[in-house]
Write a structure and sequence with these properties.
Length: about 100
Amino acid sequence: MSIKHPNINEFNELIQNEKVLVDFFATWCGPCKMLGPELEKLANNVEDDVIIIKVDVDQYPELANHYRIQSVPTLIRFNKGQIVQQVAGYRPYPQLVNMVK
């Protein structure tokens, strides 16, 4: 599975699925750069029913504002459009796996 980089309309459609993990990040953010390979590993090792999305907060500030993103990276787990879990900061692969189970 590949990581998706949707526009706002696509984002709003994608989060309506059951298992969605969104990474709110910035290109200048060190911990965000560390999280990237962990998310790639997750995308390559999880079932196809998990959707992984990356949202650049500088490119889509309206999404960052809507979800009150205060720091990057922030990970939000959605289930059918509802926030199930939200964590800020770098997370290693095992924690990412637990988030999408």
